[in-house]
Amino acid sequence: MAAVAAHTPSAVPVTVESAAPISATPVSESASQRPPSMHQAVNTVGDSHDAKPQLTIKTQAPLDDQHYQLPPFSLLPEPIKDNSSEMKAWVEQQRVVLNETLKAFNVQATVSRWSIGPAVTQFEVSLARGVKVSKITNLSDDLKLALAAKDIRIEAPIPGKSTVGIEIPNLKSRPVMLSEVVESAKFQESKSPLTVALGVDLFGQPMITNVAKMPHGLIAGATGSGKSVFINSLLLSILFKAKPSEVKLLLIDPKAVELAPYNGLPHLLSPVISDPKAAAAALKWAVDEMENRYHKLAAAGVRNLEQFNAKATAHKDFGLKMPYIVIIIDELADLMMIASSEVQDYIVRITQKARAAGIHLLVATQRPSVDVITGTIKNNIPTRIAFMVSSQIDSRTIIDQSGAERLLGRGDMLYLGNGQSQPIRIQGTYAESEIDPIVDFVKQQLPPHYLFEPEGLLEKVEATENQDELFPEVLAYIADEAQVSTSKLQRVFSIGYNRAANLIDTLEQRKLISPASGSKPRDVYFTPEDLAQYQESKHMN
C-alpha cells in the first residue's frame, strides 16, 4: 500500500514515481553519446519539477500478473430465448392494426418490414410519393391508443433509409443477459482491454464499444431506468478483457452501496470512494496524474499512451508501461452539491485533455438537470447514454433531442456515440447475480494494489484548509476582490510576508487565483457564490 507523509497537504501537486523497469539497459562509458532510453528520458522529466513541496505517492513494484487468468464465461447465466411462435402472432396483429389505423387517418402508407428486438419491435413504414413525414409523427398519440401500447417512439425517417420507424413495446420483453454479448464474436475478437458490452439493438445484434474511443461518457436516467445495472455490466466487461496491469479503475460512489462489491479488486487504484470531498481530491489526483503522463509522453517523443507503451515494449522497459485509467462516478449530483466548482473544474480538465494520456471518465446521474450536467461539462463529453427520463427537457439535456422520455425503463437506452448525429436504441445487458462470482474469481488471484486511500486524501484536504486559521477569512475577503497579492494580504490581515506567501500558494494550488505572472497581482476566480457553497459545506460537516 502506498505510504503518504501525514503532514503533507493534498492540495499540493501530486506525482507518481514509476517503479524501476524490469529490464533496464546498463550504462556504458559511451552512454552520454547515445539518445536517452525510455527510462532515462521519463526520469529526467520526472525530476524537472520546481522546488515546491510535493505529495509523492510511490507505486509498488510492477504488478506481476503474468499468470493472471481472465474470468471464464461459465460464470455467467445462459441467455434467455424468446417464445418465437407467440411473438410472430403478436407482430402480425400489430402490423394489421398499424395499417388499418394509417388508412383510417387517410395516410397513404403501409408497413413494409419489421425487426424484433429484446424489448421493442420496430415496424418500418413506407410512405407513398408526396406523403409528408409529419403526417406520421403527428399521429403518435392516436397510434399509441390504437395499439394499446405503453408508449411508442417514432423515428422519422430511419437514418439511411426511405422509411419511417415506429417502435412498439413487445408483448413480453426479454432480458438481455451479459453472456449474450460477451460471448459474441464481436466482443471476443476485439483486442482492446477497454472493450465493453452495451446490449442488443433492435435487430437483435450484440452491441459493444471501446471506452478509448468514447473517450468519455455521460450516463443519465431516472431511478429504476437501468443506469446502475449498466455500470455493473460495463465493469464486468472490463474484468473479462483486462488484466490489472492493463486497466486501473477509480470508482466514486457517493451512495456507498452500488459499487461496494468491487472493493478489493486488484484493478482498483483505491478502495471505492464515497465521501464527496475525498472524491474531489481523487479527481485532483487524476488531473495531476494526467499532467505527469503528458510529461512522460513528451520525453519519449510520442503522442499517446498506446505509442508510449509500444515504445516501452520495443526498448524492453516493461516497467515503464502505463495502464489505462477508467474513472467512474456513479452519482454526479451528490458531488456537485458539496464541491461543484472544484468537481466541475477537474472534470472539464480531464475531459479536455486526458484521452491521449489513457485516462477516461464515465459520469452517471439520475438528475440530468442543468445545475448538475452543466454546459461546460456536457460540451466536453462526446458520448451520451440516455435511459428513461421524466421529460423532454431532461432528454434534451442528455442527448440534445427528445426521445428518452418515451423509453420503457429496465435497461432501454438511447446510445449517442462519439461523432454520431442520431442515437441508437439498445436494450442494455442485465447483470446482478453474476457480479459476486466474477469479482470473487478475480480477488482470489491477486490482492488489491492501492496507490492511495480515500481517508488519506480527505485528511490532506482538511489539512490544507486547516493549516492556517486565517484561510476562511482570506476566502471571504477575496470573494469580493478582482485581484489579490501577497502584499495586499500583508496589509489587510497585518501578517508577515512568509505567512501571506503561503496563503497565496495555497489559493493558487486550489485554483482559486491565477498563476504567478511576474510581480503582477493574481486574478481571483473565487466568487461570492463559491464562498456561499464553501461555508455551507463547512457548516454541514
Report Rg.
27 Å
Distance between the termini: 29 Å
Number of domains: 4
The pLDDT mean sits at 85
Number of strands: 18
Which architecture of the largest domain per CATH?
3-Layer(aba) Sandwich
Q: What global shape is seen?
A: globular
CATH class of the largest domain: Alpha Beta
Structural class: alpha/beta
Strand content: 15-25%
The CATH homologous superfamily of the largest domain is termed: P-loop containing nucleotide triphosphate hydrolases
Q: How many helices in DSSP terms?
A: 18
Oligomer: single chain
Largest sheet: 10 strands, mixed
| Poorly predicted spans | 1-36, 44-61
Helix content: 25-40%
Tag the structure with descriptive keywords:
nucleotide-binding, P-loop_NTPase, Threonyl-tRNA Synthetase, Chain A, domain 2, DNA translocase FtsK, 37% helix, four-stranded antiparallel sheet, 4 domains, Rossmann fold, globular, DNA binding, 541 residues, 18 strands, 17% strand, single chain
